[in-house]
Amino acid sequence: xxxxIGIAGYGNLGRGVESAVKNxxxxxxxxxxxxxxxxxxxxxxxxxxxSMEAAEGMREKIDVMILCGGSANDLPxxxxxxxxLFHVVDSFDTHAKIPEHFEKVNGASLESGxxxxxxxxxxxxxxxxxxxxxxxxxxxxxxxTFWGKGVSQGHSDAIRRIPGVKDARQYTIPVESALESVRKxxxxxxxxxxKHTRECFVVAExxxxxxxxxxxxxxxxxxxxxYDTTVHFIGEEELLREHGGIPHGGVVFRTGVTGLQGxxxxxxxxxxNLESNPEFTSSVxxxxxxxxxRLGREGHSGCYTILDIAPAYLHPESPEELRRKLL
Amino acid sequence: xxxxIGIAGYGNLGRGVESAVKNxxxxxxxxxxxxxxxxxxxxxxxxxxxSMEAAEGMREKIDVMILCGGSANDLPxxxxxxxxLFHVVDSFDTHAKIPEHFEKVNGASLESGxxxxxxxxxxxxxxxxxxxxxxxxxxxxxxxTFWGKGVSQGHSDAIRRIPGVKDARQYTIPVESALESVRKxxxxxxxxxxKHTRECFVVAExxxxxxxxxxxxxxxxxxxxxYDTTVHFIGEEELLREHGGIPHGGVVFRTGVTGLQGxxxxxxxxxxNLESNPEFTSSVxxxxxxxxxRLGREGHSGCYTILDIAPAYLHPESPEELRRKLL
Lengths: 327, 327
Known about the structure:
2 copies of one chain form a homodimer.
Chain A: E1 3-8, H1 12-22, E2 27-34, E3 49-51, E4 64-67, H2 75-83, E5 87-89, H3 98-112, E6 115-117, H4 126-137, E7 141-147, E8 150-151, H5 153-160, E9 165-174, H6 176-183, H7 192-195, E10 196-204, H8 210-218, E11 228-233, H9 236-242, E12 248-258, E13 264-274, H10 277-297, E14 302-304, H11 319-325
Parallel strand pairs in A: 1-2, 1-4, 2-3, 4-5, 5-6, 6-14, 10-11
Antiparallel strand pairs in A: 7-12, 8-9, 9-10, 12-13
Helix pairs in contact in A: 1-10, 2-3
């Protein structure tokens, strides 16, 4: 029997989940739920579209609802609400608010007797898992997380709010010499500036003061002031052609020492190189939906993160098969 | 209360566990168990040494016994035997026999009501976990495992058995161009020869026929015939000075595609660079001992692998703390 999936929210993430479910032989997509007019949406696979309000009436038709809204405005309300009806999975990524979100979702899931998985993606998600495993295996050591090369939506939006800017794309780029130093096990102390640079591609409005725009970008507190930032002004066509994708990725390192004197060095490196940030996040969400369903079938309820789930729950094959083929 | 650890077997792995336990604030080492004369052993930390037969009488004094014997001759008997008395952890690494070993150990642990964790190390172990997670997240894709640069004990031993060879060290080395092709997401089909080369450092006995030794090495079936192998004859002193360590490591890749048309590429890379293969394996064993103890406290019993354990069990901090700090 297939795992019956619902998708709540139909942006980049929702479309990614739609594809991932299509490519998972043990799953079927029941429908997409939206706060927009359902008639205004056409799904990639032709899956039916329902209004968000229709979800409550479909409790018996859907096993796991995958939430594809944003962490700022959608998930804090939607995840607990839908956790009262279904097993749910979200990619809530406001790191500082994860404990609070966990508590709310956990309460809702315990009440409904369902399973929820929050913060399922790559950071938080697979990167968190690797930070944790690195610390567990090499307790005497240091963590490093580098992001990029990739598009930061938050930083791109910040540039777009500057007067005279028509459109913009910002790439976060790890500093190669910092990566190399960590990779060698040198355990450097790195400032913000030493870890990442920022590269901006900006389309200015006609007649705009480019010098003023550049100055506004590189001095912007929190976003750019602490980084070495380069700004390129380009045409709108070039922006769409060369910078239309949403690639991302990064590296988590754990470097540490073992031995009675702590003199033996080890380096663990986990690297992601993603052509599409939302499609990869969607793939993690979909694997976690499988875990939520299985945990629920075993009678569990409450909220989980990727740190709290035995990894085999994420893979379609049985634990016996996995031991035989992959261990 | 500390987790009370016993070590069964006192070679490189046993000494590595001894150091790892010393560096784990939530653990204490009760003693080392050996089949040799206990009086003949002096431990690094001064921990007491007992005969293997004394283990049965110490059921109340030890929570987890970490097995540090070899997969060929020790663990197939010792792990099930000790699983009747304690929670146990081993690094059984004969891949083809893992299902059989699992069944035997599982039976013993279910009988005693204890928890066992087998095949805890890096391959099998952390590499297996990454192969599995890669498949779960990117179901349309390919796995690659590369080993090295590192010392292969089996291959070194095979060279030592050749007449005229006094001592030898063999390094397994991944082919850089193959790594690069995989890293770029080209998903190449790679033969054995295209993935790894083998480099041998050999001390010949005086008057030995070096040409014959080299020929015997490079044509040796299973071990060397399918690889590009280079042989260097060096002096005994140089071997000990330059090749005395036991470094190892490697890379697990998962490269795959997402999207409805399968056109979006992603690369996941997990790399280990280890100055000491046994010390790192010991560190994984020790983290898994923590997991075994905690699972036991929750009333679980039976056999687990790293695929079957929620990762948070491996880390000394609580799930709440981990969510707050690492997610």
